[in-house]
């Protein structure tokens, strides 16, 4: 049997530490031993090199054997029972006897491998009741503290008492994973770290990722010698993922970092809040120190306790802020705007408008005018910000406590108004509201210069070794906007936008109302003028016809003059017809109140009798027509014009044939699929026209033939279209030259 170790021997330094595969070091710490068993057979596939120290058998003795062969059937049965009940990584560790010695084992799965980490039972471990008493004490903290920081302070103190570490810190991350010592308990002779900040480079991304997976990490002795893990040499590139391992060996970079701090042993517990690494419980000891597995679990419970309280405590701390801003919102929400500029001037001066989000200043831009209150930029600067934010946010919203990060070239603008909350009040971005906060100079105490977190010395790149206090003054930054403040600002902006939209709609209504009144007056004047002019024009036309008729009977009138007088008479008659048609067209208006049920068979029959009584050469066939809602007078005019057109534009060499028929069932008009119409067709065998004129013939004054060929004003079909449109219907034409015309009329079917 051939074996090999899986130690990761890649050279790690600070230039590649962020890519270091810290989850597969191939080695462990020496305070216990590790075995990796194949899940299906429990065959020992991996084994640390220190088993002889604990059980008197080397790794070569164990590799290739099953767990039962190596430790007996009882031990195998206990392990299988533990795995089957899914107790892995639970608070109930596996207590077992291996080759006559008692061990507490942490068991978990890594892919298809069951990892067993065994540590000898400590005979001087704290009694269970003592651990319980310390643990139960944490519950009392909920009743004796108000703020999250006070609670964390008590947890740090209690954790140090139960674990015995020299220093216990509650370490909190910001949005960029820079850390702050939020609470601390330490020996009296030690320099406190409370309030110190540490750069994000101290804990690289892959380390933070492991903290999310494995909530507890212990180093019992910084000066330990890593124990290699061996495996059966049966395939290339074998490795073992130790992400969840308690004994996993530590990155040499991290060990050097702890050496530089003077630390001898550590315990780290992850604090996870809303699926993000919120912080750590970091325990330091200045000499080697180990904890029993039971004590580690008790300490880990404190981490669960803190994370369970983060939401509650933050909510309590934000409650007072929320109460105040909501009170301001209620007052502002009751204020009703009008389109009077004085109303906006009154609004901007309301102190509650600033209180909505505890701002120092506010600006409102409406229809190009700027309204200001408090500490704000100038009017020109506000207009610039309004335009910039409208484009930057696509007419949405944004909040920042450091405006300089968004506008790095405008330092002077950001000095007095370091923070801003912007909300657009329309889709064009021309109207908006912006709240401002003044600069708050902040002093940040770093544990060493954060810009020197990596140093270059004769050994090359290494972690910083200076943790002396380094102070940084943060400029051009405002106090952060709290979530209740942002929520209230957003809610008020939405309400303000609705009010402004209502004002704009009201303004548009007033404008259209005035335009409608002006249009109505103009139409009335035009109609009156049209009637007067048409009436006055008809009188001289009648005189022209009368005089020309008298002159035609005179014997002395030359033949050429008689022809001229006849043409004059015909022209006057045509002009009179045109004026009468124009009058009909312009006065064609009515409302649905004038509608009544009209039987088209009876109405068309009356029209046909009037138009065909003097001619026997006209064959008019009328089918079964529906009853529709309409105005009888105008419907009679409609069919009279259509039948007259069929007679007028008939062929001279054949009898006139006209059909008026209807579809038996309602149909849909091609462009309005969801409505039903009665379809009525007027079909003749006249001269027809080219189909390309099918739409233009319904325009006013459109004529396809010379006036000398066919009489008419060119208004008839336009009049028909207007009548049909006023009945909420449609009219179309289909024709070809010499083959007659088909007029289709769609009347809506009333509900």
Enumerate how many helices there are, as a single number: 19
Structure class: alpha+beta
Mean pLDDT: 80
CATH-derived architecture of the domain at 589-748: 2-Layer Sandwich
What's the CATH C level of the domain at 589-748? Alpha Beta
Shape label: elongated
The major sheet is characterized as: 8 strands, antiparallel
Query: What share of the residues lie within helices?
Result: 25-40%
Overall number of strands: 31
Distance between the termini: 93 Å
Q: What fraction of the residues are assigned to beta strands by DSSP?
A: 15-25%
Note poorly predicted spans: 452-456, 458-464, 469-473
The CATH superfamily of the domain at 589-748 is identified as Histidine kinase-like ATPase, C-terminal domain
Rg result: 48 Å
CATH topology of the domain at 589-748: Heat Shock Protein 90
GO molecular function, one term: phosphorelay sensor kinase activity
Protein name: histidine kinase
Domain Histidine kinase: 532-751
EC number: 2.7.13.3
Please name the defining characteristics of this protein:
six-stranded antiparallel β-sheet; 19 helices; eight-stranded antiparallel β-sheet; Heat Shock Protein 90; elongated; alpha+beta; Beta-Lactamase; 751 residues
């Amino acid at each position: 049997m051939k074996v090999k170790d899986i130690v990761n021997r890649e050279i790690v330094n600070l230039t590649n530490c962020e890519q270091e595969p810290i989850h597969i070091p191939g080695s462990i710490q020496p305070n216990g031993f590790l075995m990796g068993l194949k899940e299906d057979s429990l065959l020992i596939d991996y084994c640390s090199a220190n088993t002889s120290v604990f059980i008197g058998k080397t790794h070569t003795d164990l590799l290739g054997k099953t767990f039962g062969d190596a430790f007996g059937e009882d031990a195998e049965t206990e392990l299988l029972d533990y795995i089957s009940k899914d107790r892995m990584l639970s608070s109930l560790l596996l207590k077992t006897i291996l080759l006559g010695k008692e061990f507490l084992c942490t068991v978990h799965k890594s892919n298809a491998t069951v990892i067993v980490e065994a540590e000898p039972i400590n005979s001087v471990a704290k009694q269970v009741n003592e651990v319980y008493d310390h643990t139960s004490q944490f519950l009392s903290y909920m009743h004796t503290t108000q703020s999250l920081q006070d609670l964390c302070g008590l947890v740090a103190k209690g954790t140090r008492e139960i674990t015995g570490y020299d220093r216990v810190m509650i370490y909190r991350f910001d949005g960029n994973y820079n850390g702050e010592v939020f609470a601390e308990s330490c020996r009296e002779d030690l320099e406190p770290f409370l309030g110190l900040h540490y750069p994000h480079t101290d804990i690289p991304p892959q380390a933070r990722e492991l903290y999310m997976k494995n909530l507890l990490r212990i180093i019992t002795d910084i000066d330990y010698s890593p124990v290699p893990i061996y495996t059966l040499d049966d395939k290339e590139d074998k490795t073992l993922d130790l992400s969840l391992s308690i004994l996993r060996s530590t990155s040499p970079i991290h060990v050097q970092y702890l050496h530089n701090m003077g630390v001898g042993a550590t315990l780290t517990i992850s604090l996870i809040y809303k699926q993000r690494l919120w912080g750590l419980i970091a325990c330091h000891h200045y000499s080697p120190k180990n904890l029993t597995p039971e004590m580690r679990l008790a300490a880990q419970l404190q981490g669960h306790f803190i994370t369970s309280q983060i939401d509650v405590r933050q909510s309590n701390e934000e409650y007072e802020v929320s109460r105040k801003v909501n009170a301001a919102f209620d007052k502002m929400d009751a204020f009703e705007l009008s389109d009077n500029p004085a109303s906006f001037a009154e609004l901007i001066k309301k102190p509650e408008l600033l209180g909505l989000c505890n701002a120092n200043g506010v600006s409102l831009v409406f229809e190009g005018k700027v309204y200001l209150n408090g500490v704000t930029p100038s009017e020109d600067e506000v207009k610039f910000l309004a335009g910039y934010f409208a484009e930057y946010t696509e007419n949405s919203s944004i909040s920042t406590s450091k405006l300089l990060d968004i506008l790095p070239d405008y330092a002077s603008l950001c000095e007095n108004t370091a923070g801003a909350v912007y909300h657009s009040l329309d889709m064009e971005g021309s109207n908006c509201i912006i709240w401002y906060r003044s600069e708050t100079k902040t002093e940040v105490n770093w544990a060493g210069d954060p810009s020197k977190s990596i140093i270059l010395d004769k050994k090359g790149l290494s972690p910083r070794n200076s943790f002396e206090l380094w102070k940084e003054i943060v400029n051009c930054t405002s106090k952060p906007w709290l979530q209740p403040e942002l929520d209230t600002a957003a809610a008020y902006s939405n309400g303000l936008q609705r009010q402004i939209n209502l004002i704009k709609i009201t303004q548009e209504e007033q404008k259209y109302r005035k335009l409608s009144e002006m249009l109505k007056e103009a139409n009335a004047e035009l109609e009156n003028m049209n009637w007067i002019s048409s009436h006055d024009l008809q009188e001289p036309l009648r005189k022209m016809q009368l005089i020309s008729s008298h002159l035609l009977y005179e014997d002395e009138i030359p033949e050429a003059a008689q022809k001229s007088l006849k043409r004059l008479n015909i022209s006057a008659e045509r002009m009179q017809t045109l004026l009468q048609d124009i009058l009909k067209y312009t006065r064609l208006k009515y409302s649905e109140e004038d509608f009544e049920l009209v039987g088209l068979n009876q109405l068309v029959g009356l029209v046909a009798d009037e138009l065909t009584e003097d001619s026997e050469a006209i064959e008019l066939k009328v089918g079964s027509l529906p009853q529709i809602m309409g105005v009888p007078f105008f419907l009679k005019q409609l069919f009279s014009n259509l039948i007259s057109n069929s007679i007028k534009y008939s062929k001279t060499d054949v009898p006139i044939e006209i059909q008026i028929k209807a579809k038996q069932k309602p149909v849909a008009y091609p462009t309005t699929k969801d409505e039903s119409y009665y379809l009525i067709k007027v079909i003749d065998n006249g001269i027809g026209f080219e189909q390309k004129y099918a739409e233009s013939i319904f325009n006013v004054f459109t004529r396809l033939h010379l006036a000398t060929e066919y009489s008419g004003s060119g208004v008839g079909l336009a009049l028909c279209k207007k009548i049909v449109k006023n009945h909420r219907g449609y009219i179309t034409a289909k024709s070809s030259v010499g083959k007659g015309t088909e007029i289709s009329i769609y009347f809506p079917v009333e509900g």
